[in-house]
Amino acid sequence: MPLKYLLPEDQIPRYWYNIIPDLPSPPAPVLHPATFQPVKPEDLAPLFPMPIIEQEMSAQREVPIPEEVRAALARWRPSPLFRAHALEQKIGTRSRIYYKYEGVSPSGSHKPNTAVAQAFYNAQAGVRRLATETGAGQWGSSLAFAGQLFGLAVTVYMVKVSYEQKPYRRSMMRTWGAEVFASPTDLTNAGRGILAKDARSAGSLGIAISEAVEDAVSHEDTKYSLGSVLNHVCLHQTVVGLEAQAQMRLAGEYPDIVIGCHGGGSNFAGIAFPFARDKMNGQQVRLVAAEPTSCPTLTRGVYTYDFGDTAKMTPLMKMYTLGHDFMPPGIHAGGLRYHGASPLVSQLVASGLAEAVAYPQTACFEAALLFSRAEGILPAPESSHAIQAAIVEARRADAEGRERVILFNLSGHGHFDLGAYDQYLAGQLQDFDYPREAVEASMAGLPKVG
Amino acid sequence: MPLKYLLPEDQIPRYWYNIIPDLPSPPAPVLHPATFQPVKPEDLAPLFPMPIIEQEMSAQREVPIPEEVRAALARWRPSPLFRAHALEQKIGTRSRIYYKYEGVSPSGSHKPNTAVAQAFYNAQAGVRRLATETGAGQWGSSLAFAGQLFGLAVTVYMVKVSYEQKPYRRSMMRTWGAEVFASPTDLTNAGRGILAKDARSAGSLGIAISEAVEDAVSHEDTKYSLGSVLNHVCLHQTVVGLEAQAQMRLAGEYPDIVIGCHGGGSNFAGIAFPFARDKMNGQQVRLVAAEPTSCPTLTRGVYTYDFGDTAKMTPLMKMYTLGHDFMPPGIHAGGLRYHGASPLVSQLVASGLAEAVAYPQTACFEAALLFSRAEGILPAPESSHAIQAAIVEARRADAEGRERVILFNLSGHGHFDLGAYDQYLAGQLQDFDYPREAVEASMAGLPKVG
C-alpha cells in the first residue's frame, strides 16, 4: 500500500475552478464602503490590476492558468497526497485517512498558490511594486517570494507585535528581498493617526491593511495584494482540490468527508470547492470547515454584510462575521484569527453545502502531536484544526460501526511555531471559551445595510 | 523543460551501496583507543547491535535495505531532484545545474536516512533505548523521529550552549517524544567530571559524545547511535546518490561534477559514493567535497590516525584530521564543525578519487541568498557550501568556454537558521581565516600510532 500519491509536473491543473457559476444562487454584490451601492470594476482599479478584478467577478467556470504561473507553481506542485497509515494505526480506526500536504511550498503553506498568480498578473499589467499586510508573516513571505519570481518589489506592513515576537518570518521576507515595516508606521496617514493616539501601539491586522491599502492607492506604480477572503484568492487555491481529486482517483477512492481549516477561507476553498462541484452534481460528500472555538466565525457568526477590516475602509461583503470590531483571543493559530470569512465559503455554509465545526486549541495541539509522531510532519497550528476534525470524524465512524474515507488538507508546516509546541508540552497553553460578550458587543457595531 | 525529476515510491533503492569492496585498497583498520590494536566486532558490541557492526565492516557491495526501512523512508523518499533553471539564469551560466533536495525529510535534512535504519536494527535486536549526542539538534531530532517509528525511547545529550540558544530544535525532539538533556549533565561520570571543574560549562560535542557513550555502555537495554563519520552511516546515506543516478537518467544527463558539503562526511558520501563506483569503473566524473575555510579538515588536515572525540574515548580511525583538540570557530554551519572526517571519504580524497574545496561563510551565505531568491528554497548554512561550490564551478566553466553538467546535494533547509540569515543581511557575519595556530597546536596532540 503506497504512502504517497504523486502527480507528474505536467499534471499541474491547466485551469482554476471558479465555483460562482455553479452556485445555487448568484453571490450577493459587494458594496462600496461609503455609498453601500454595489462596487463597479473601476472602483477596484486603484487596488488591483484588471485581470484580477475580472477574476473576482468572473462567470467563467474554468479559468485557464497562464503557463508562466504553472511554471512557477511547478517549483513545488503538484503537492503530495499521503495516506495516513501510521495515524490510522495510532488511533485504531477502520476509516482510511488521506491528507494533501501544502507545506512543501517555498514559504511552507498554501499561500504561494495565489501569491504567484497575483504577482504574475500585476507584473503583466506593468505594476512595479505590491503592498500588503501580514500578521505572523506567512502571507508576507509568500508574496515576497512571488515578487522575486516576477521582478516586483514587495512592501509588507507586518503587525508590530508579530514583527517583534516572530523575527524568523520577518527574516524570511527580507531573505526574499521584501521591504518589511512594523505596523503602525509613520509612513502613512493611517499609521501616523494611530501613533498620534498611542505611540506604543502593538498594531493589528486591521491597521496593517489600512496602511497597505493607503500605500497602494497613493503610489501610481503600486497595487495592493490580499492573501485570503476574496473570490480570486479562493479561485487560485483550487489547484489544491483539483490535484487532490486526481490523486484520490490514483488511490482508487472518493472521499466521504473533505476537511480544511478555516480562517479567511482560502485554504478551505482550495481543497473543498472542486469537491463542492461534484456535490452540486449529485455526488455524496461532506465538506467540513474547522475553525477555533475562540474565533468561531462560521459556527457562531451571523451571515450578513460587514466590513473586511476594523477601520471600515474595505468594501462591504455578505459573509459570516463576528463583527469587524471583534478582537479574537491570542491563540497560536494566528491565521485563523479573522472576524469574517470568504463570501463564497459563507454562501456554501449558508446554503448547507458545507458545514462548520469548532475546536479549542489544546485539543488541536494534542491531535497535531499525535499526527506528528505518526506521520513525521510537524503541522502548523492552523492545520492542526483539520487534523483534529479528521480524527473526530474517524472516531465517530468507528463508534457508528462505519468505515469512512476522510481527506483533509494539511495547509502548512509548523517549523516557525515550535514555541507554541513548547508551551503545549509544558502544559502552559490555555483554551478560550466562546467569547460571547465580546462577540455580542462587536455584533452591535454591524453596519445597517439595505 | 521540467523543473523536477520525481521517482515513484517503488523506486526507493532496494540496496545500499557499500563502497568498501570497490576501493583501490582495503580500509585501514580501526584501532582500540587503549591498546592501539585493531578493534574486533565484540569490542563494539556494547555500543551497537550486531547488524550495524556487520555493516560497519561489510565486504558486501550491495546491502539489501529491509522492507521496514524502505517503508519508513517512503514518508519522504525518493526525494526530488531539481533542475536549477532559475539559478542558471540568475548567474548567466551555460552550464546545467541540478540539485538533489534532502530537506523534504521529517527533520529537514539527510540525517533521517540513517536514523531510521539504525532505529530499525536496534529495535530488531531488542534494544529499548538509544542514547546519542547532538550539537545544534539536526541529528537529535532525526533520531527522535526514527525512535518514534520503531518504538524506541531516545535520550539526547544536547550541547548546552545550543540547548539554550536553539530552543526550536530541542522542542522538535520533545515533540517527537525524545528525552533531551543539556550537556554536561550530572547524570554521567563524564558530565559530573566536567561540572566539577566548571559548573557553568557550555558543553561541547566531545563532552556530549562521552555522555551518550557512557549512558549506552552502562545500561543493558541501551545502545549508542552516531549520525555521521562511520562506515554504516555513509552506507545508509547512499540512497541519496542511487536515487540521483536514476533521476539524472530521467533527465537524460550524466554529471561532469558531483558536489556535497562536508562535515563528518555522511552527506558527501551519500551523494558521491554511487558516482565514485562509476568513476572506479572508468566514468569521467569529478567528486567535490565543500567544507568551511574555518574548519578545513580535508583541505588542510593530515591523513593519519586520530580519535573521533576530544575525550579520546572513541576508537582511532585513519582519516583527515585537524587534531581531536581542534575547536573550530563559531560559524553558523554547525554541522560542518568537526575536526575529523569519515575514514571512507578520507580514503577517497587521499587516493585522488575525490577532491576538496573550502569557502568562507559569507561567500556561502551570498550563494544561499542568490539560490533562495531564484529557487524558492531557503538552504541550511551547511548546504550553502555545496551551492557556492556549484556556482564557482559553473562560472569557471563559463570562463573556459565550456558547458558542464553540475549536480549538488542540497542537504537540508534553513528554517531553523534564520537568525544567521538575519546577521548576514545586517552585515554582521564575519569570516574566519584559516586558523593556522590552533590547528598546529592541535596537530601536536595527535596520537603516535605504529
Automatic annotation (TrEMBL), chains A, B:
Q: Record's family?
A: Belongs to the TrpB family.
Quaternary state and partners of this protein? Tetramer of two alpha and two beta chains.
Q: Does the keyword NAD apply?
A: no
Record's signal peptide: none
Q: Which residues form the Tryptophan synthase beta chain-like PALP domain?
A: 77-412
Q: What class of enzyme is it?
A: lyase
Q: What is this protein called?
A: Tryptophan synthase beta chain
Q: Which Pfam families match?
A: PALP
What GO cellular component entries does it have?
cytoplasm
EC annotation from Swiss-Prot or TrEMBL? 4.2.1.20
Q: Which cofactor does it need?
A: pyridoxal 5'-phosphate
Its job: The beta subunit is responsible for the synthesis of L-tryptophan from indole and L-serine.
The entry lists its GO molecular-function terms as: L-serine hydro-lyase (adding indole, L-tryptophan-forming) activity; pyridoxal phosphate binding; tryptophan synthase activity
Pathway per the UniProt entry: Amino-acid biosynthesis; L-tryptophan biosynthesis; L-tryptophan from chorismate: step 5/5
Q: Which PROSITE patterns match?
A: TRP_SYNTHASE_BETA (PS00168)
Highest rank taxon of the organism: Bacteria
Q: Which UniProt keywords apply?
A: Amino-acid biosynthesis, Aromatic amino acid biosynthesis, Lyase, Pyridoxal phosphate, Tryptophan biosynthesis
Q: Which InterPro entries match?
A: Trp_synth_b-like, Trp_synth_b_CS, Trp_synth_beta, Trp_synth_beta/beta-like, TrpB-like_PALP, TrpB-like_PALP_sf
Q: Which reaction does it catalyse?
A: (1S,2R)-1-C-(indol-3-yl)glycerol 3-phosphate + L-serine = D-glyceraldehyde 3-phosphate + L-tryptophan + H2O
